[in-house]
Structure formats: C-alpha cells, structure tokens
Specification:
Layout: H1 26-32, H2 34-37, E1 43-45, E2 48-52, H3 59-62, E3 63-67, E4 72-74, H4 83-90, E5 98-103, E6 105-110, E7 118-125, E8 134-142, E9 145-150, E10 154-157, E11 162-165, E12 186-193, E13 196-205, E14 208-218, E15 226-232, E16 236-246, H5 249-261
Antiparallel strand pairs: 1-2, 2-16, 3-6, 4-5, 5-16, 6-15, 7-12, 7-16, 8-9, 8-15, 10-11, 12-13, 13-14
Length: about 300
C-alpha cells in the first residue's frame, strides 16, 4: 500500500531571521554612558551638546576636586551642615539653582575635555571679597598648556608669556570694589569660539542685569583641554553651571575605549516596557436575588 505523502503544512518551519540591530553611533553610546563621561545626562543637537550640574553631587562624578588646608569643594549642597556657611552662602539665594560650594581654598579640574567652540556660564555668590581673595578659572588645560583668567579681569597664556588685561577701567581695580556681593550672585560667561576667548559678567543696570564684556583676546588654534578653577581666601556658592559647545567626540571615543576595556561600557539601549493592558469595566455577575428567566418553572 502506498504511504500517503506528508502534507506540506506538516513540514518544519524555518525560524525567521532576526534583524540585526544597527550599531550605535558615538553620540548614542556617549548618551548611554553620560554619567561616566560628564557626570550627568547631556542634550545633543546637530553635533552640539549641553550639560548642567544641579548640586546633588553630580559635579564630583566629572571633576576631580581638592581642598586646601581646612577648605574644599562640596558638590552636594545638602552636605553643607555648618550653620554659618549655610547662612552666608546658601540661605536667601535669589537666582539660579545651586551647583556647589567652595570654602576657604581648593581646586577642581574636569575629567572631560572641551574642543575649540564652547560657552561656560554660571553665577557666583561671594559675600566677602578683599585684596587677598583669589579666584582663577582654567581653560584648555592640557599638560603644561592652559589659559587662565584671574577674577575674570585678564586672560593669561603662560606658555606664550602672554597676559591681556581688561580695557575697562571699572575692572582694572581690585575685585573687592566691583564684584557684586548680593544674594543673587554675579553671572559669568566665558566663550571660546573662532580662535577668540571672551569673558563677560553681569552688571546691574537699574533692576536689570546686563552682560558686559570684561576682557577678550585672540587665541591661535586653541587645542582641546580640560576646564576648572582654583581659589584661596574666599568662600562662595556657584549656581546654574552650564556648558554648551561642540561635542568632543574624539575625547569621548578614547574615554569609552577605556570603559570598554574595564568592562564598564554600556552598549544596549534600555528595553521598552510594554504598556499595561487596558482594563474595561468589571463584568456584572448574575443577580442571585432574582429568578433565572431561563430556568424551568416548577410543576
């Protein structure tokens, strides 16, 4: 007897090939590893990124800080326990969101680098400034090469033995005579673009703040480098620290290669959770107090 042939549908179906996921771009990988790169998540659009530091300890994830003597940098505002420092630096602060507190003396230097097109902005509340107070901000720091500004009044390039001072007479005297010591803090803007560095501060014009350029200079081909600050003889609160600029992709790739070698690189996007099923109105059960209309009548 001839054996019936096996129907086609009974044959084993071959599993469908899964679509291979597209490799992530440098910026996508960087966003997944943003905490390890910049300490906080960052926004990016058309090759430009921005980060802000909200004062809950994130600054310490992206900057190396050191204290001097009894001083130091506190990146988590809630950890400032000393009542006199809280009253002096934090209480009554009227503008911006706190980023960090610096007490007496110390320094901070970023773990990340910026390229030649960026803007750094923040507010600085310094209630007491005198002739011995020191505050320096560092830019494009790479080994022995760096750019420095002292209380925003000048731009110094030690490697070239260059120093450019403000041309505005108001800013040529001690910072104790012009720095706004009010509870709102003084806004500061540092811009590096097109081979030029310019520094501006906010000056009250009536009740309105007006940004005024203090000093600027040409910087031929500024290389990528770190940023930071050092201070001595002052205590201050920095608020609303924000960095905008061209995304430093070369630095990010090098940093992520280190993370990969250490087995710490995040490479997968978080799985999307399925939306919970919509629940309709509960079905009503039979009303047992009434007779069943489909039941047979008793004879």
């Amino acid at each position: 007897m001839a054996v019936a042939s096996e129907p086609v549908w009974a044959a084993e179906e071959k599993p469908a090939k899964k679509k291979e996921a597209k490799p992530l771009s440098v910026t996508q990988l960087a966003q997944l590893n943003s905490a390890a790169l910049f300490g906080v998540p960052f926004k990016i659009n058309k090759g430009r990124f921005s980060v802000t530091y909200p004062g809950a300890g994130e600054f310490d994830k992206a900057f190396t800080t050191r204290g001097r003597g009894r001083g130091g940098v506190i990146a988590n505002i809630s950890e400032v326990k000393n009542a006199s420092y809280r009253k002096l630096l934090i209480d009554g602060h009227s503008k911006g969101k706190a980023t960090l507190v610096g007490m007496l003396g110390g320094s901070a230097l970023s773990d990340f680098e910026l390229v030649d097109d960026y803007k750094i902005s923040f507010r600085l509340r310094i209630p007491r400034v005198d002739g011995r107070s020191r505050f320096s901000f560092l830019l494009n720091h790479h080994g022995s090469d760096f750019v420095q500004t002292n209380f925003f009044q000048d731009i110094v390039i030690p490697a070239k033995k260059s120093r450019v001072r403000s041309k505005n007479k108001k800013f040529l005297v001690s910072a104790s005579r012009w720095f706004d010591k009010g509870p709102q803090g003084m806004p500061v803007s540092i811009v590096c673009k097109g081979g030029k560095i310019s520094i501006s501060v906010g000056v009250l014009n009536g009740k309105k703040e007006q940004m005024v350029e203090v000093v600027s200079t040409e910087v031929a081909e500024p290389g990528p480098g770190k940023i930071g600050f050092s201070f001595e003889g002052i205590s201050f609160m920095m608020s609303s620290l924000r960095i905008d600029g061209k995304f430093p992709s070369a630095w990010a790739e090098k940093r992520m290669a280190v993370l990969k070698k250490a087995g710490k690189l995040i490479t997968k996007l978080p799985e999307k959770k399925a939306a919970p099923a919509k629940k309709g109105p509960p079905k009503k059960g039979p009303d047992l107090s009434r007779p069943d209309p489909e039941a047979e009548e008793e004879l």
